């Protein structure tokens, strides 16, 4: 296991980049502690797979350094970095038994057979595949094949980092939650440094202790799942995480006041100085139907089982809220109450409200 440091990292697939727009990865400075569970989260094309390939050694960055425990490994190939990687599609040998698949990474390094047997038994027990050890891999279901692929990455106890690149893509939706839970359990038991790449917020938030959210080759926020939900540092984070995502509402500023459709909005703290496009961000979970508040009209509603999602209009501005109580009829006049401690201003996408500590 290792602490991973990315220092002033940039990468361009253009051999002669001329400006920031030519870089798939803008400058990345990042530290991952030894033994942590991390996720790289973002939409397709945001740079997360490029970053993973640089960490694994499949790509050499245009600029910057990759360090494992302070040692510069930027120029080292994958086989010199002591890593394990699990891909979207299971990487196993169909003609081998499950036991031999799990044993292969150890045997390939000359590990004593008694140690191989002990380690394979340990990993098989963790993965709940002990009864499959004598079965040829070709006959396994897709989820069990991916379990074995994960096990091949975890069976060595000397790796610096285990990396997962969209490992649940080919798994049936009803089985994904089982594998997510199993992976979280495995991390708690083996305490290896793990990096999980995904575009699926549920996978990232249920697996990782720290989530790195990426957009257009940049890191826009690093935090715990709670931090990303409770206080997004960028409107992209607020919109990308949550279902429905955070309301991003056009706003204006009059002195120290922030206005929404002519109404004064109470924020979590004072707005920072600066210029740029101003918006208000508030999650649907922190808006309530009330006796007083911002006047609005119900546009539509959706019953999603655990609660209702109501879309109301404040003037010409659509606002979503989540409620578990009775829902007014479509077209009804209502009042919306924003929780001030979860209402923030954003300027050009970035958080522009200071937090007032109690």
TrEMBL record:
InterPro entries named in the record: AAA+_ATPase, ABC_transporter-like_ATP-bd, ABC_transpr_FbpC, ABC_transpr_MalK/UgpC-like, Mo/tungstate-bd_C_term_dom, NA-bd_OB-fold, P-loop_NTPase, Transp-assoc_OB_typ2
One function term, GO molecular function aspect: ATP binding
The UniProt record lists the keyword Glycoprotein: no
CDD domains listed in its UniProt record: ABC_Carb_Solutes_like
Entry keyword Membrane: yes
Domain of life, per lineage: Bacteria
Domain ABC transporter: 4-241
Keyword annotations of the record: ATP-binding, Cell membrane, Membrane, Nucleotide-binding, Transport
One matching Pfam family: TOBE_2
PANTHER family for the chain: ABC TRANSPORTER ATP-BINDING PROTEIN, MALTODEXTRIN IMPORT ATP-BINDING PROTEIN MSMX
Homology family: Belongs to the ABC transporter superfamily.
Name of protein: ABC transporter ATP-binding protein
Source species of the chain: Roseovarius pelagicus
